[in-house]
Amino acid sequence: MKSLALKKALPCLLLSLLAACGGGGGGSDSSSSSSTTSNTSTATNTSSSSTSSSAQSNASSSSAATSTSSASSASSAAVSSASSASSKSSSSVSSSSTSSVSSSAASSTSTSSRLIYEGVSLAGAEFGSAIPGTYNSDYTYPTTTEVDYFAGKGMNIIRLPFLWERLQQSLGGDLNAAELARMDVVVAEATAKKVYIILDPHNYARYNGNLIGSSAVSQDNYVDLWKKLSMHYKSNGYVFFALMNEPNGIDINTWLSAANAAIAGIRAQGAANLILVPGISWTGAHSWLTSGNSTTMVNVKDSGNNFAFEVHQYFDSDSSGNSDTCSTTTGSTRLSDFTSWLKTNNFKGFLGEFAGGNNTDCKAAVTDALTYMRSNSSVWIGWTWWAAGPWWGTYKFTLEPTNNFTTDAAQMSWLTPYL
Known about the structure:
Layout lengths: L48 H8 L12 H4 L10 H4 L30 E6 L21 H9 L4 E6 L1 H4 L9 H16 L3 E6 L4 E2 L2 E2 L7 H15 L5 E4 L9 H17 L6 E4 L14 H4 L10 E6 L17 H16 L3 E5 L6 H16 L4 E9 L23 H4 L4
Helix pairs in contact: 4-6, 7-8, 10-11
């Protein structure tokens, strides 16, 4: 794998904090011990941060803890298709409030079936090496204008990366009120538009550089985060819980135990929300069988029977996302083993990150993947592109519009036919 810091070209945690500050889509765990190189290309405080500041000025710590009227209909049905999703053709996910994305798959697929959840990661809250850092200097949150823009394009789900260390500034402590209020603003804006939102601790199975399950960060510490966050958002069925971004360098049985404990902790709070469960080795789709995920993650347990497996996949030569070049045939081929595993084990899948540079080869790879998932909609429930957000600048994968939201990013045209 290439330098881990290059994959998303954003400042992650302290450079000593994450042995995994990149590497998305399933780079090998042998790279997790590589030293992380300094990032210089993004997350500088550009003029766009002032937009975010004004968008967040009305933050309230309770603004999104309960849903608006548009979200209340989904309070007990994380997988139900609300009006933003109901226009999509019928999928294997039932609209019943008691149904689960992990329930039995449909016996057939349709090449015309649109997936239930289609959207984008809005990055910024996970930026910066300073912990906790200064808001709108070291990191930012997506603006309400961005939420409105992507909803207007037909997207109905937003993945919101954040840092565990910012939201919970001491292990076992209360969630930071100011940080939670900023998150609430984004959740409230999405919810009001019947757009689902994925809460994504972008930590690679670490807290301050220490792995979950180590002497520094216990499994109980990790579960405590999810107990408190799920308690806060459990009444909003439009909020989904992604257990962790790209776990790597962690023993698979340690990760399975932590994931199952977090799921149990979430359900113990009375939260019925959809849970997205990653594997180890950067949760790469292409390496799902070789990483051990295929044999171990079948043992995920959810008393609410409402979860899906989240994988990431890039289409460059090593699936890292470091390069803006792609092989035109990698879209479907890198998803096929994982798709077969889903079908064999009666599970559902969600592609949490994928992208390609602005060129014809990457367009072919991306559209091949999207078409493939659509043709396998009995097991694939959705996807989120990596990424957009107010501070990306000229990042090769950015979906952020320019000219005051009047000019689409080039790759937006690739996604539009699938929305």
